[in-house]
Fold each of these.
Amino acid sequence: MHSDYRGSSHRFWKGFVFAWNGIRSVFRTERNFRVHMFCTGLVILGGIVFHITKGEWMLLSLIIALVLSLEMVNTAIEKIMDYLSTEPDPKIGAIKDIAAGAVFVSAISAAVIGGFIFIPRIVEVFL
Ligand SMILES: Nc1ncnc2c1ncn2[C@@H]1O[C@H](COP(=O)(O)OP(=O)(O)OP(=O)(O)O)[C@@H](O)[C@H]1O
């Protein structure tokens, strides 16, 4: 079915195009992903404004990548489940809940890391 692109000499670069298309698709269809992207923008802005350290940038980039990629995996799992059946089914519900839980766990960690990095600096501004 995909023999056309697999046989092409540009298949390596086409892999990036497919990945980019996936990110665009999630951005367009998933509100939660757009919320995460908005938060990412705020965090990057905060990092610039507060001159955070190189180590803090590394930690932030890791946790941002984790949250965004888990949101994409969650969306992929939801789509697989909806492709299999759109009928109400407790097993499908449980699988989707677990995938959503994974995003939630990473988001909590992101909030903790963001708190440790930014709260002392914000407090300093007001003291
Ligand atoms: N076919 C189903 N059978 C039973 N429960 C379902 C089914 N589809 C969805 N659910 C329940 O509804 C929740 C939301 O599922 P949905 O596919 O609507 O994702 P969503 O609203 O896009 O969620 P998210 O905010 O995680 O992206 C699931 O976590 C699950 O509890």
Amino acid sequence: MSRSLRFFTPATHPSFLKPALPTFYRRFPLTFSSNRVLVKASSDPNPHILVSGNGAGSATSACVLLSSIEVDAVTETELKENGFRSTRRTKLICTIGPSTCESEQLEALAVGGMNVARINMCHGTREWHKRVIERVRRLNDEKGYAVAIMMDTEGSEIHMGDLGGASSARAEDGEIWTFSVRAFDAPRPERTINVNYDGFAEDVKVGDELVVDGGMVRFEVIEKFGPDVKCRCTDPGLLLPRANLTFWRNGSLVREQNAMLPTISSKDWLDIDFGIAEGVDFIAISFVKSAEVINHLKSYIAARSRDSDIAVIAKIESIDSLKNLEEIIQASDGAMVARGDLGAQIPLEQVPSAQQKVVQLCRQLNKPVIVASQLLESMIEYPTPTRAEVADVSEAVSQRADALMLSGESAMGQFPEKALSVLRTVSVRIEKWWREEKRHEAMELPSVGCAFSDRISEEICISAAKMANNLEVDALFVYTKTGHMASLLSRCRPDCPIIAFTTTTSVRRRLNLQWGLIPFRLSFSDDMESNLNRTFSLLKARGMIKSGDLVIAVSDMLQSIQVMNVP
Ligand SMILES: Nc1ncnc2c1ncn2[C@@H]1O[C@H](COP(=O)(O)OP(=O)(O)OP(=O)(O)O)[C@@H](O)[C@H]1O
Ligand SMILES: CC(=O)C(=O)O
Ligand SMILES: [K+]
Ligand SMILES: [Mg+2]
């Protein structure tokens, strides 16, 4: 077997700096054949080769890293320092914006525990987002992080224009403002706002209430004049670029016009093509109304990107999405409780119960769920959160959501790293408290697969998770090619962390969104005995586990549960 080889020089490979090669490198003699070096005896598709030479530029022997294993640098450090039981289970997402788009800022977030970087196509140009993606990828490649990328579509709900470059505009009580479907030449005329929806002037009626960003500012429609709608400000406040607009008549949301808007606009399709070309890990779809659009997008992605498997996340942020909740979640690869827009479409007091319902349903249907928006809103301006915000974060963690998301706090706030650190410390504390109190909620986990073998996998995971809790094991190991078995274990929310071994980097990045999973990339075989022995020695060599640790292992290939102490 001959392969193309990547050579590491002492300067670029840290292992050379160690006094002795780690045990998982084995020395092989080299065979030379017309400029090519042949190394036999490695089954790894990408063997790491360390070459030693005679000092005159010619290699005499090679050390092959028999099975390279990849885990992100942050997790590795955490595991070494604190052991398995105290690792964070709740995953963290940061929206990237002007406050966090430089490489050093992105790295600070990666070190601070960012599992997924979200880019919001509502803002910035494709070139801007492309640069962010490139920076994240470079950090992953060069520094060993495994930050996944989520692209969020703009969607086509009604929103204001971009204020002609101004970062905000203030509307005072009683002022008359014009909302118009006309596009204006710069500079924007005073007290005039452009609206993105062509039917706007036809659809609103005199007397309607115009609500900006779910209530940050309110207007009353007083006169219609061709494409212009004159409104009086009734609740003063700050207008932000592209702020969402809803209008209300006799106390209820006017929705007819929204039904006319496509969930995925023509601009969204271009953004989706961009996301596919860039190989993002997740695409989050705004203002989903039905399962149909998710199915449509999934088949589009499947036809466009055969080798990469992009997960589609349904954003629950409209009345229609709540009406068709179960079928939407069923069709998607995950869901987001997008409380910002949701709170503009349903009364605010209904948002907490909607959140709980979505989180529970996702877990039952085995789909990862994200709780998003305003978790630490005050930290956009202040270095410390309000007590109410900490309570909100705690509630989402107690609900066992897979992931929490920062929006403005990380995109344009003054304290992105501090906000992330609050999410991290609150998550770890609340998770620990749950384990100590032994408050395993007995959630009914219905069967999700159709085939009998899927049902077996589900039963194995439920039993393995239960055994892990009762025996107080140190970790669950799962060997999974597609990631499915890992997600089934995650769904059980066991007390110990789940070490998920998977063969591809893309599955590994995707698993980064799911509760309690510590994903490793490792090439493994169908022989569980040898997989286990290899993983034990690899993890031991890196100081991540030690002899005597109690482990339960399950795998995609072999439907069994193994309980053992690390030799
Ligand atoms: N790429 C970006 N460029 C500039 N500003 C950004 C960018 N991404 C986010 N922001 C800023 O951060 C704020 C919060 O981001 P967030 O992603 O929550 O957007 P949003 O406008 O509230 O829309 P959505 O409903 O999609 O979340 C935005 O209102 C915007 O001011
Ligand atoms: C995240 C998002 O889109 C919202 O909260 O509206
Ligand atoms: K969006
Ligand atoms: Mg939204």
Amino acid sequence: MVSPLHSNGRAELQDDKIVSSIGDLAPKPDIRPEVLLRLSGKLQTTLELSQLLEIFFEEIQQAVLVDGISFSHNAHNLLLSYGRNSVHSASYRLQTQQDYMGDLAFHRSTRFREHELANLEGLLTTLVYPMRNALRYHEALAAAFRDPLTGAGNRVALDKTLQREIELTKRHGQQLSILMLDLDHFKLVNDDFGHSMGDKVLKEAVTCITGCIRQTDMCFRYGGEEFLVMLSNAEHAGALRIAERIRMSISSLAFSNEKGRLQVTTSIGCATLTMEDSMDSLVQRADKALYQAKHNGRNRVVCDTDDELDTPPSKSLL
Ligand SMILES: Nc1nc2c(ncn2[C@@H]2O[C@H](COP(=O)(O)OP(=O)(O)OP(=O)(O)O)[C@@H](O)[C@H]2O)c(=O)[nH]1
């Protein structure tokens, strides 16, 4: 059985005028039952969110002509569009008693009439539960690729993402840099302030890193207190600037508990992709630079070029 959408769903024109509440979503007589039946059946064939919306967009054309649809869910960072964006739109909030499932807008070059809006609302009732299942599936997949403590990507995600990004970067002749980042003397944090303080520092460090990078960049937990940051479209100089920003941001964090006050620093190795690089060789160069940063005294950024790797500590970026 399909439950009605919540009554705070609404259809609106571009000027934001609310034209219809969707508290009562009983399908109107002019949607043929076989259309609803077929749509409902098709929506149950996939758990993949983008496929689900694509099916929905194609199938609803039999009941109401629509130029395009767009779906957004801020908490999941999702924005998906199908067809064309047009002048007029009707927007709905998808919601059951328990779950918010995003906002869906229908677009068309001509105004939606009242009975068409009623039909769209009827069609939406078939989407609610398949959408809830697809979002749960999406969450489960995302969790499988995330480090549970810090929320950074895990090693599985890193391998998949970095490999793909390297291929795309080479194919499009763009730039890609990575940072290998390791918190300094982290063992002492655990030993002197306790493991839960160690966990807190790790979480805050990731918040700092993600605050310093673009949305298209990604942070992965590489090991215990080691992180890899993937900087898409970043050349050598740009990557060094971001690395320095992250280093400073982490060093300005302040922690305290009953054992006292604590500040942490980080060492960062930076490497930029060359055409000859594989994923392993790129990571190895960043790792070597990180090792050098530790060797040079920690709390600094060192890049992968041979010159800098060979330089004595005084030539590091600090
Ligand atoms: N609290 C906490 N500690 C962790 C976690 N993962 C790894 N660690 C600790 O991180 C510490 C890493 O220590 P080391 O590899 O000796 O490195 P370090 O003390 O940071 O020294 P340098 O890297 O040389 O500056 C170990 O004590 C690990 O137990 C975690 O999830 N939580």
Amino acid sequence: MNVLEKVDYISDLKKLNNSELNILSSEIRKYLLDNISKTGGHLASNLGVVELTIAIHKVFNSPKDKIIWDVGHQSYIHKILTGRKKQLSSIRQLDGLSGFPKRCESSHDTFETGHSSTSISAALGMAMARDIKGEKHDIVSIIGDGSMTAGMAFEALNHAGDIKSKMIVILNDNEMSISENVGGLSKYLDRIRTAPTYGRMKDDFENILNSIPAIGKTMVRTAEKAKDSFKYFVVPGVLFEELGFTYLGPIDGHNIQSLIKTLNRAKRVNGPVIVHVRTKKGKGYKYAEQNPDKFHGTSAFNLDTGKALKKSKGIKYSQVFGDKLYELALKNKSIVAITAAMPSGTGLEKFKEKLPQKFIDVGIAEQHAVTLAAGLASQGLKPFFAVYSTFLQRGYDQIVHDVALQNLPVVFAIDRGGLVGNDGETHHGVFDFSYLSHIPNLIIMAPKDKLELEKMIEFSSEYDKGPIALRYPRGISVVKNELTTNNELILGKGETLIEGKDIAIISIGKMVEISYEACIKLNNNNINPTLINIRFLKPIDENLIERLSNKYKLIITVEDNVINGGLGTTVNQTLIKSNYRGKVLNIGLPDRFIEHGDTDKLFEKYKLDSNSIFETILNYIK
Ligand SMILES: Cc1ncc(C[n+]2csc(CCOP(=O)(O)OP(=O)(O)O)c2C)c(N)n1
Ligand SMILES: CC(=O)[C@@H](O)[C@H](O)COP(=O)(O)O
Ligand SMILES: [Mg+2]
């Protein structure tokens, strides 16, 4: 680590010569691998942008020049080069570095990301602000080919090409989203990659014409006049050019010297520029190059074998969902599965492989996916849009306007509901109950375990009267025999799991099992709780809640959503309607963004583990 040892800040990097920069890139790769194999994190994307990040910091002067990382999962090298090298071992851990750019971490993190395709809009905003204020600096956004497929990116390109403010968009094209990239743009980039260059084609063309005796020269002149149509066939990046960008590339994103040269050229262009850079996801680590999807976001692994250090016992909710939907789709021909670029994360790999004609990957385009589902449902199909809770936030208006208003039977299979752990603020699914619970026509349910998830998927596949939101958490489903019941799943009905005489606890989803553990502790302290698995947030079981309100002087709600607008708020409103005079305690997440860290640690910190719930209730009663 001879060179990396000397590099703590970009000022150190600026002093290095070409051969030292090349050594630095190898050393950074090794440093990344040593650290991320222990902590886990977004390895493959970072391995792919080592040279690009070095070149960006060599050419531009951050933080005066503004650098924006789209998604931000590939910003680890940027962190290493901007004074956070030694903290890399803490990345994504509670109180450690975030896995995404964070303004509170460094002045070099100019814009926070986590969700994709925001960087061009942000860059244009910054460029316009700079121009209005009469300042002089560069604005650079780095966006992947996957992220470029989203509507927001297109909206921003459309605007930026028109405004003509000076800004640089680096398109990092590794031919991959998390899985294989999809869509027309991806095919277009592929054509650019494989096309001969405009300059060479043009020369060849002119040489052929010139060689034709007598009329050749006239034909060259005619061709010159028709150059625009000629350009359409052969110029790389014409799509971007036509939108108003200067297109540079495609260039080898692992060649630091050519990157530096092209970025310097981009710097001199007075207007919006797109620099098309080709990289290899997972570059330099055999297992990540071979399997970029698996190493996109990885847990800790053995460097020599590429195998995960911890084998998870049990089955993940996502897998339960994917398997069950596949099983149902074999019988119910109207079922269609939709993903927005997350086939593996949502457990749909098997469905994709075995029923490709019923599987739709729209790319990173959640808004489009929701309205597409509405279109499918309007024609009698049964679409299941499997989507992470946090990314469905993108499709809010489409849920209201295109699905719920027309009462179309779309199922939102909302994965990663609740706290997701190490990704942090941008990824926790803690707002879904709140952003959905006020939408008319929408049914909202959450299973206590995988068995109930299967029942709910079956219920959803048969229900044709309107839309359903089915929310489940990240990770493994714990099934407790004591909680396994034969209670039929009836729309809007909860189930009583424990009948006690002192207090009532109403819980939902994953929190049912945790609340059950708290109940055992309460019982050991001579407090006999009733435990309700409410199952449906909407329609809420008003009869059951009224019955509880007549019997108990204390009613407690437990959820892994923010209390505002979630189960707590919904139960409180129901209790007000039934004139409840007793006390209510809402346990859930506070009105603030929750940071990153291991899920268990976050549950403890935010007092949602069974011990904390027990103590909170005990203290309240005392
Ligand atoms: C709105 C949104 N949807 C989905 C995701 C999940 N996601 C994170 S990275 C990624 C792939 C991005 O591909 P690309 O931009 O090409 O970057 P690469 O990982 O290839 O470097 C996806 C789908 C997200 N972060 N934001
Ligand atoms: C950066 C991003 O948005 C995804 O890579 C996300 O981190 C995946 O999360 P899971 O690990 O829960 O699939
Ligand atoms: Mg990519």
